[in-house]
């Protein structure tokens, strides 16, 4: 009898962690689509085109700071976009964004765009309810391109404010704003993401290393490099 009780106890102790891991994540899921280039002038074409993916990934990074949200991995979304022959342009209508958002398990889809007019940088984003296809919020930010990262942080904060989404803690937001991330870092990061998506992993690693060395505050590059080197 004693051995049977011990065996049952051991089974319970082993089963608890597994059960905890299988608990459903009830946080609202958010999928961020590639940002569409609405027509840019006066900047390097390759850099501007790469921003479509770079801004998407950076927006995911900002939203992921809010632990009350569950962000959908960009790779999962990219897989569905490729299957739907939508590529990485980011040009999808609300109905399509809602449909694909539901496929990847998101409650909300974020669709955005940008224009760089000789460093006069405009960026906008819409939150789409994947259940109703309704655009529940539209936000826009604008400033000199030198403040690109600050614009991203501002836009991420505005997207969740006033919507049925939990806001980012004030202290976390302040810490993000204080990071010194120049446009060059985001440009290099964007190009590295494109290289990585295209299977040019060695080239992506080189750029991630450059960013890590020159712009240590941009921890996204360090994490991307770590993941690539361990894969």
In short:
This protein is of the alpha/beta class. It has 9 helices and 6 strands.
Stretches with pLDDT under 50, minimum 5 residues: 1-22
Secondary-structure element series: HEEHEHHEEEHHHHH
| Structural class by SSE content | alpha/beta
Number of helices: 9
| CATH-defined superfamily of the largest domain | TolB, N-terminal domain
For the terminal residues, how far apart are their CA atoms?
48 Å
> What share of the residues lie within helices?
40-55%
What is the residue-mean pLDDT, rounded to a whole number?
85
Going by CATH, the architecture of the largest domain would be 3-Layer(aba) Sandwich
Task: Report the C-alpha radius of gyration, rounded.
Answer: 20 Å
CATH class of the largest domain: Alpha Beta
Number of strands: 6
Biggest sheet overview: 6 strands, mixed
Overall tally of structural domains? 2
Q: In what range is the share of β-strand residues? A: 15-25%
Q: How would you sum up the global shape?
A: globular
Give me the CATH fold name of the largest domain. Rossmann fold
Description:
- Strands 1, 2, 3, 4, 5 and 6 form a 6-stranded mixed β-sheet that branches.
- Helix 2 (45-64) crosses helix 5, helix 2 packs across helix 7 and helix 8 runs antiparallel to helix 9 (219-230).
- The protein has 231 residues and is α/β, with parallel strands linked by helices.
- The termini are far apart.
- It contains 9 helices and 6 strands.
- 53% of the residues lie in helices and 16% in strands.
- The chain has helices at residues 2-21, 45-64, 74-83, 94-103, 148-160, 170-177, 183-197, 201-214, 219-230; strands spanning 29-32, 36-37, 70-71, 108-117, 120-129, 135-144.
- It has 2 domains: 26-166, Rossmann fold (3-Layer(aba) Sandwich), CATH 3.40.50; 180-231.
- Strand 5 and strand 6 (135-144) form a beta hairpin.
